Structures are given as structure tokens and as C-alpha cells.
Amino acid sequence: MSRAWLAALRQRGVAWVETSSSAAHAQGLAETVAAALREALVLRGEAKLALSGGRSPIPFLDALACQLLDWEDIKLTLVDERWVGSDQPDSNERLLRSHLQPVFDRVHWLPLYRGLSPVQDAAVAGTMLLEWQPLDVAVLGMGLDGHTASLFPGQPRVSEWLQPDVGTVCAATLAADESPRLTLTGRALHSARRQLLAISGEQKLQVLIGALERDPADCPIAAFLRAPLEIHYCSDQA
Questions:
Q1: What is the pLDDT of residues 141-150, one digit of tens each?
Q2: Backbone φ, ψ for residue 9 (5° rounding)
Q3: Cβ(119)–Cβ(149) under 8 Å?
Q4: Residue ranges of the alpha helices (H) in 136-225?
Q5: Based on the structure, what is the number of domains in the chain?
Q6: Each residue of 18-68: pLDDT tens digit?
Q7: Is pTM beyond 0.85 here?
Q8: Does residue 26 fall inside a structural domain?
């Protein structure tokens, strides 16, 4: 099978890390993130990290929680969040609190959800996140529709929000099912010194390959397929 797409990624300066087992994928990603955080701590005395939620990152989060780090000097936020309280099953904050439980109370946590309104919460979080720019590490995921964070295809302002110089750092968006979301924008995500994308399985690989030829408005992950992105891919979807 031709891997011309891999050459195309490398021509864009995108690094590719491939594993065949979900355990190796999670451990490798955790070690990569931890190494980047340690470097930031040495150079700047603090590290700023944005993580994705959902089910896919759970093994990675469990592995990350086992990394030996000066967690008290790490600032942590989410790439995106559902507009629900942290006591709700779909809350990404709840997911992080659960799977980073050994270290969560040691980090400087900045929630996106604040319970005001999606627009107000985005404004409050965005103002606070301005002081965090640039991020040291952002870990992205990708849906089968090509969305990343809560930047979905066909949103009226998605092209604007994907830009590195967009005015807002955090935006109120709607998912495909019209549920309200909060998301970091291109201003925050493109700022990250280490940009990592974690995906698994043949279906998502095909979406990624297709994104090389698609407009970001129709496939938002396409906006990030360039240096300094590093893709961690696992052929095992489990």
C-alpha cells in the first residue's frame, strides 16, 4: 500500500510516530508530553498544558498521571469542554479529575466551564488564557468528521476560529448535535510549542489522509497539518 500521504506530511514538517498497540501508544504519548513539560520547567520554571477529553485519551491520561513531574509548577486546561458542570458524565473536567486523580490537586487548574453562559464562560476563560500564551503543549484529538477540539465542519465561524491570529482565545461553539461547547481557538492551539495529535484506527487514518486535500472549513484538522505538529498514530483502535 502506497504511503505517499506520509511523504506529504513530512514535506509539511509534520512528525509521525506509529505504534501497533494501544498500550504503547498511550505510554509513548505520555512520555512525550512529560519530556516536553520537563523541558519547559527547566527553561521557564513553569509549564502550560492543554489536554483533550473524550474516551480515546483515557489510557494516555492514566499513563500521564504516573509520570514523575513537578506538577505544582504545571498549569493545566482543556482543549475543549462540553457546556456542562463537572458533576455531569459528559464533562471533560470530570474525566481529567478522574484519570489524573493522583496529580490533579497539585496542578494549577483553569476550567473552561464556569456556569454563566457559553459566551460568558468563553470570554472569562479566554481572558485568563491570554496570560498563558504561548502554551507549551497542546494534545489534540480528531473525530471521524475531521473536527478537532470543538471546531466542527460547517460552523459559521470555523474558518475564523482556526486562524492563528483570531481575536479570541476561547470561543462558544455548537457540536453537530447542537449541544453547546467551549473550545480553544487557533490563536491558542497554534501557539503551542509542542502540538501533538493522537489518533487510532484505520478509519481515522483515512480521515487524516483525506484532510491533506481538504479545506479547513470542511475538515478543521486540516488547519493543523503542518509543522510543528507531531502525530501519534496507533493502528489498533482498541
A1: 999 999 999 9
A2: -65, -45
A3: no
A4: 158-161, 186-189, 202-211
A5: 1
A6: 998 999 999 999 999 999 999 999 999 999 999 999 888 999 999 999 999
A7: yes
A8: yes
